[in-house]
Amino acid sequence: MNIDKATLINLLKEISDQGEIKPTDIPCVDLYMDQVTTLFDDKLKASKRYETDKILTKTMINNYTKDKLLTPIKGKKYNKNQIILLVLIYNLKQTLSINDIGQLLSPLIDTLDENNKSENLDSIYSAFLNLQKKDVEIFMEDSLKKFESIEDELSQFNSSNAELSKLLLTIFMLVDSANLQKRMAERLIDNYFSPKDK
Asked: Mind spelling out the 3-state secondary structure of the chain?
């Protein structure tokens, strides 16, 4: 149960390679649902917590369509923009409710024309991938600073089980940061994306 700085660095490196679906990974031709789920499984398998976890299933895709998180499918095939929306949904659903995701993606979906084309969606998605890489670096630096703060805090009092205390506080602080970020995202959605009559 010993956690030290070197162990933390190794864990951070391990989770920093979460996989991604780059715009160049999405074929120019439309894909059937099985091809879409295979693409997600291949490219995002590193983000699974357990080997048996599902990245994307047919049921999920159908539910996203019913919830109007995706534009209607033509000929049982998914185009590049629909696949980009699925990647965004995959990332967002880790933290946000389906209702919040719908409010957030609605302006993007509204920019798609009848052929599901939008330059805005491509640009936002590419920027998101770039920022995601930078965010991993910031997260790693921030986590190490928090870990050092935890060690400093623990040195101030006598703990009968310092290693357990260090591990617990590390998890508590990570969850606290995640909660703060989630609440900030929800506040932005409530202030800028929610219907005004609420």
From this structure: CCCCHHHHHHHHHHHHCCCCCCHHHCCCCCEEHHHHHHHHHHHHHHHCCCCCCCCCCHHHHHHHHHCCCCCCCECCEECHHHHHHHHHHHHHCCCCCHHHHHHHHHHHHHCCCCCCCCHHHHHHHHHHHHHHHHHHHHHHHHHHHHHHHHHHHHHCCCCCCHHHHHHHHHHHHHHHHHHHHHHHHHHHHHHHCCCCCC
